[in-house]
């Protein structure tokens, strides 16, 4: 789960990190009121969307859209004009894709006189099974280019969870950022605070870009944070920060039915039980020259309601030209699953080819139910057979 910049900064400030004052705003009036309660004389109006690259983004509706989603304002009037420009309009950045994202909230924050911009982030590093802190002297708006062109300017510090963040990690961080004197000390302290926040909040990623030096002080000027969704149950306050308007509507609906659904770019909808089987199904569709439209794991106890919901979610995607159901009846029985599939197919008025591969307990009864349903369901014997059949059906229908 991702959150907005202003929410991430609130959490980081609670863990002691230095964050400039700021107030979120949902309307132009709120933006003006927020600016008035900050000291000035420089403010920054920042679009709050779950995507980076806002500074270099453009607004679809504005002819002068090149001004971007992060703007400095030297007066309350400028805050007002910029807020009016952004709210309700669509911001397109390198991370949003061409469709862009509608800006529904702003963050009005103190303008900082930046000396230098640094980069600092933390992620879970799957290769080492530990968390890693990543830092660079080249912060700001082009960290992707730094990673490609001058990777030697990036320092990675891997931290052993049993040991925690040790003073030497802090020194490596400050050294990597080429800081001396008091700034060096500040970086060591900030690294420890960031690590503690990451662990305490069960984060999967924190990115501070830029971490800025201003008047001899390090400041968090931008923050992105994502959380391990498996740990959200123990952070009700963080769960409450979820902004569903930022998420794919189909993925939100799927999560209500406890289905693991991720939208992909292809045209073959997949309904599978078990994440491993779902991955294998996607692979074998690709092996047969087509592309999956989604990842969908209905889980172990796929009830009729769940199967129906899954069908509806798959079919809402206009790119779907055929569906492949691949279910292993282990805990569930194949005849129960077949009943669910037939009911769901009738319920949603299925209009695209459907190939079903069932395996496991009561598989013969399950296949009989599908064959006797009167629906144009193509039954398959194994995974390879199923993939070949759905690819052929979609080609035939095209
Ligand atoms: P994004 O990464 O989405 O483009 P940022 O919050 O990093 O958005 O803002 C882009 C740039 O705007 C920063 O690299 C920084 O130069 C400038 N900026 C951001 N916040 C402030 C601030 N509070 N004061 C001064 N400049 C800022
Ligand atoms: Mg940034």
From TrEMBL:
Chain positions recorded as substrate binding sites: 273, 330-332
GO cellular component terms attached to this protein's record: cytosol; succinate-CoA ligase complex
Taxonomy, superkingdom: Bacteria
Record-level GO BP terms: succinyl-CoA metabolic process; tricarboxylic acid cycle
Pathway: Carbohydrate metabolism; tricarboxylic acid cycle; succinate from succinyl-CoA (ligase route): step 1/1; One-carbon metabolism; formaldehyde assimilation via serine pathway
Keyword Repressor: no
Similarity comment text for this entry: Belongs to the succinate/malate CoA ligase beta subunit family.
Physiological role: Succinyl-CoA synthetase functions in the citric acid cycle (TCA), coupling the hydrolysis of succinyl-CoA to the synthesis of either ATP or GTP and thus represents the only step of substrate-level phosphorylation in the TCA. The beta subunit provides nucleotide specificity of the enzyme and binds the substrate succinate, while the binding sites for coenzyme A and phosphate are found in the alpha subunit.
The protein's name: Succinate--CoA ligase [ADP-forming] subunit beta
Organism the protein comes from: Tsuneonella dongtanensis
């Amino acid at each position: 789960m991702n959150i907005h910049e202003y929410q991430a900064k609130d959490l980081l400030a609670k863990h002691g990190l230095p964050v400039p004052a700021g107030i979120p705003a949902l309307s132009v009036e709120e933006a003006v009121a927020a600016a008035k309660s900050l000291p000035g004389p420089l403010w920054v109006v920042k679009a709050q969307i779950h995507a980076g690259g806002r500074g270099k983004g453009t607004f679809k509706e504005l002819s002068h859209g090149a001004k971007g989603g992060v703007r400095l304002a030297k007066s309350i009037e400028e805050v007002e004009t910029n807020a009016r420009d952004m709210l309700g309009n669509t911001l397109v950045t390198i991370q949003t894709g061409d469709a862009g994202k509608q800006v529904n909230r702003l963050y009005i924050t103190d303008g900082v006189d930046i000396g230098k911009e640094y980069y600092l982030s933390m992620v879970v590093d799957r290769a080492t099974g530990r968390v890693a802190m990543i830092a660079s002297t080249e912060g700001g708006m082009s960290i992707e280019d730094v990673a490609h062109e001058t990777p030697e300017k990036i320092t990675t510090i891997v931290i052993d969870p049993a040991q925690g963040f040790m003073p030497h990690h802090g020194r490596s961080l400050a050294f990597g950022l080429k800081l001396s004197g008091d700034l060096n000390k500040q970086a060591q302290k900030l690294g420890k605070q960031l690590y503690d926040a990451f662990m305490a909040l069960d984060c999967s990623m924190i990115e501070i870009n830029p971490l800025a030096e201003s008047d001899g002080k390090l400041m968090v000027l931008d923050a992105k944070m994502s959380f391990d969704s498996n740990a959200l149950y123990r952070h009700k306050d963080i769960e409450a920060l979820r902004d569903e308007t930022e998420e794919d509507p189909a993925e939100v609906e799927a999560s209500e039915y406890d289905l693991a659904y991720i939208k992909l770019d292809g045209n073959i909808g997949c309904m599978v039980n078990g994440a491993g089987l779902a991955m294998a199904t996607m692979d074998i569709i690709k092996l047969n020259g087509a592309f999956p439209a989604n990842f969908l794991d209905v889980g172990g106890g796929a009830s009729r309601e769940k199967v129906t919901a899954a069908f509806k979610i798959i079919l809402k995607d206009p790119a779907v030209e055929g569906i492949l159901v691949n279910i292993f009846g282990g805990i569930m029985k194949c005849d129960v699953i077949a009943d669910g599939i037939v009911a769901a197919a009738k319920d949603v008025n299925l209009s695209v080819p459907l190939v079903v591969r069932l395996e496991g307990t009561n598989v013969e009864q399950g296949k009989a139910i599908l064959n006797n349903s009167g629906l144009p369901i193509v039954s398959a014997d194994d995974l390879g057979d199923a993939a070949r059949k759905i690819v052929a059906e979609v080609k035939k229908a095209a």
